[in-house]
Amino acid sequence: MTNGCNDWGVAYSHIVWFQNLLQTHKNIECVERHDDIVFETDRKVQNDHLRILCCNEYTMGLTAVLRGLQEFGHVSILYIGGGWCGYTKQAKDYCIGQSIGLFNTNEIHGALWKNDYWNYHKRDEKGNPVYSYKTG
Q1: Using DSSP, how many helices (H) and how many strands (E) does the chain show?
Q2: Which of 54, 60, 67, 122 has its CA 20 to 30 A from that of 107?
Q3: Continuous segment of H or E residues that includes residue 122
Q4: Does the domain spanning 14-112 belong to CATH 3.40.1350?
Q5: Does residue 2 surpass a pLDDT of 90?
Q6: Mean of the pLDDT values across residues 13-32?
Q7: What confidence tens digit (pLDDT) does each residue in 24-71 have?
Q8: What are phi and psi of 101, to 5 degrees?
């Protein structure tokens, strides 16, 4: 896996951290990286292939989602960065409607286990869905 460059401002350290997360995840059996921030992965249990775009967006809005899809074609998951990162409700709703996962670090581990990964969400103590919504 070579390190290229990206127009998304994703630091090499962030890319390597995410690469390591994928390589050590128990449901991922292979990881290949291209275009510096795109990861091609195969899942063991589901026996499927996921294309993941690694971003570092404090607040991922619909415009950034559409930019990612335009620049990289179909992606299965948009990984947006650390637990402090989030997304707008509009971006999350769009991604769910398109069967695209939109997750931060706190969400990606569980999503990689779920068959319908795009619908994955954490739950609060009462069982209600918890999303990492942010505004602007």
Answers
A1: 4, 9
A2: 67
A3: strand 122-123
A4: yes
A5: no
A6: 97
A7: 999 999 999 999 999 999 999 999 999 999 999 999 999 999 999 999
A8: -80, 145
pLDDT at 103 over 90: yes
Alpha carbons 136 and 123: distance in angstroms, whole number: 24
Gyration radius of the chain over CA positions? 14
In this prediction, residue 92 carries a pLDDT of: 98
Opening angle at CA 74, ends 110 and 109, nearest 5: 10
The DSSP bridge partners found for residue 54 are 79
Q: Are 21 and 54 in contact (CB under 8 A)?
A: no
Cβ-contact 41, 31 below 8 angstroms: yes
Bridge-based pairing state of the strands 48-54 and 38-43: antiparallel
> Which residue ranges make up each domain of the chain?
14-112
Question: How many CA atoms are closer than 13 Å to the CA of 135, on its beta-carbon side?
Answer: 0
**pTM for the predicted model, two decimal places:** 0.94
